[in-house]
Amino acid sequence: MSLIECGPEGLEEAVDAFYAGLLAMFGGDAAPMKAAWWHDADVSYMGPGGDHRIGWDEVAAECERQAGLHLGGQVSPERRHVMQGEDLAVFTCVETGANVVDGTPAPVSIRASTVLRKRNGSWKVVAHQSDRLDHVAITS
């Protein structure tokens, strides 16, 4: 199921903004990623490295830290699925692609869940959780 099939107005754009922000962050610019999030005390981020950040100050600092790594490369959300309520939605996917570590492409295979909140007609991220799929089988 794609987001277009679900028809949630503005939700697809918010997810696309999150992934555009991720690519910008890989290039060293945290601003687009930070713009994809609500800047609230209850936001959370759990990354594939096991980190767990709570509150906007911690999440924003993590965005800046990751931008400073200049990972390069590209990932895209595959196997996209959305569950939407009136003002909350959960987007799940498998992120695939590669980053560049010490000049060498490093494959990326991550399972991710992103929670978005709708406020004043706009959807933005309030939680993102991801896990590496190094040892997890993905089946259709």
Task: Give a verbal description of the structure.
This protein has 140 residues and is of the alpha+beta class. It has one domain: Nuclear Transport Factor 2, Chain: A (Roll). The protein is built from 4 helices and 6 strands; from the N terminus they run αααββαββββ. It has a 6-stranded mixed sheet with strand order 2-1-6-5-4-3. A hairpin with a 2-residue loop joins strand 5 (104-119) and strand 6 (122-132). It is globular, with a radius of gyration of 15 Å.
Q: Specify Rg, calculated over alpha carbons.
A: 15 Å
Number of helices: 4
- Mean of the pLDDT scores? 90
**How many domain units?**
1
Task: Assign the CATH architecture.
Answer: Roll
Helix content range:
25-40%
Question: What separation lies between the terminal Cα atoms?
Answer: 13 Å
Across the major sheet, the strand order is 2-1-6-5-4-3
The fraction of residues assigned to DSSP E strands is: 35-45%
Q: Strand pairing plus helix content: what structural class?
A: alpha+beta
Instruction: Note the main sheet.
Output: 6 strands, mixed
Brief description of this entry?
The chain is of the alpha+beta class and 140 residues long.
Write the layout of secondary structure elements.
Blueprint: H1 3-6, H2 11-26, H3 31-35, E1 44-46, E2 52-54, H4 56-68, E3 74-84, E4 88-101, E5 104-119, E6 122-132
Parallel strand pairs: 1-6
Antiparallel strand pairs: 1-2, 3-4, 4-5, 5-6
